[in-house]
Amino acid sequence: MSNRLNSKEDFYKIYKKNLIDIINRVSDREISNFIDVLLEARKKSSFIYFIGNGGSASTASHFVNDLSIGTKLLDMPFHAISLCDNQSVMTAIANDYGYEYIFSKQLSILLKEGDVVVAISASGNSLNLIQALGVAKNKGAITVGISAFDGGKLKDIVDVSVHVPTKQGEYGPAEDVHMMLDHLITSYLTNYTR
């Protein structure tokens, strides 16, 4: 975005237009594929683990809230867990083994064949996510990547990719659309599935 703006309103208009352009470039088929994975996991009572760093960790936690509780499908719930939320476990692993293992160590204990791991990352190159997806593949889990920028390594190694094509370093719009995907998907699941 240009640094030469005449007003706050100009900035808002440019930001909004950019966001709309990005949303329009996200693949409907990729979103649909992700919904299919979630519904299949629910059908099989498989667990769905969400992981991410920074703003993406926050999105992972929010997604779990909306999916497990917000859908209100308690008669046939989604078993969703954010591995970003237990600070004691994460800091113990980071301290004892290294930050790159904060998710893979948890998954090596919790994950069962047929479970789902959803990795959220703007860059798609976070080592701790790549490590975790390696564990997921070895354990026979289904992997989903929600990425931005050019998709990074994440886009190429997951079973199902939902890519938000943004410019390199465009974190705000990337995370905006990731959150929009959370609300779009969970709203669909709430209103159109039983």
Instruction: Report the end-to-end length measured between terminal Cα atoms.
Output: 43 Å
Principal-axis shape equals globular
- How many domains, as an integer? 1
The count of helical stretches stands at 8
Q: Report the helical percentage.
A: 55-70%
CATH class: Alpha Beta
Please list the strands of the largest sheet in the order they lie side by side: 2-1-3-4-5
Class per helix and strand makeup? alpha/beta
Name of the CATH homologous superfamily = Glucose-6-phosphate isomerase like protein, domain 1
Structural write-up:
Helix 1 crosses helix 8, helix 3 (55-70) packs parallel to helix 8 and helix 5 (104-110) runs parallel beside helix 6 (127-138). The protein has a five-stranded parallel β-sheet with strand order 2-1-3-4-5. It has one domain: Rossmann fold (3-Layer(aba) Sandwich), CATH 3.40.50.10490. The radius of gyration is 17 Å and the shape is globular. The chain has eight helices and five strands; from the N terminus they run H-H-E-H-E-H-H-E-H-E-H-E-H. The chain has 194 residues and is of the alpha/beta class. The mean pLDDT is 95. 56% of the residues lie in helices and 13% in strands. 40% of the residues are buried.
